[in-house]
Amino acid sequence: DEEVNLAFDRFKRLADQKKEIFEEDLETIISEQIRRIPERYVLKTLFAQSGTGQVPTATVELAIDGQIVKQTGTGDGPVDAAYRTIAAMIGTKSRLLQYIVKAITGGTDAQGEVSVRVEEAGKTTSGSGADTDIIVASAKAYLNALNKLAYWASKNQDPNQKIGLV
Asked: Do 61 and 44 contact (CB within 8 A), yes or no?
């Protein structure tokens, strides 16, 4: 089954990054798999750079409808730089209404889980993403929300009416 293979691949990648895998890590992997929708926008690579006295910069590579696109942008911090770059690449005018980051487990190698609420053209939806790098988790959460908006727009439906997507 493709979904089981995708979840197992995610588990293997996480195991390569962390010393220990906790129950909460597995719950996050399963939860992400359950909430999957068709992905028009897929994160391929993300490089973010920031520091004292530097302009925060993000270089993002996305697959948009299967076509690889790469762009660099700046922002007020690495998350903002990544979000602005992604928005420019996709051409979205969405607004970030809420941004929450929390550790799934303890330790310096813990996964960060990011939850966002995004609004565009009167439509609001949520997105989530997890990774040991919170900038990557943030980009995944934003793309998850944008993919939901794109999916429901393609179905000519309001995501606010769909249970489990808001």
From this structure: yes
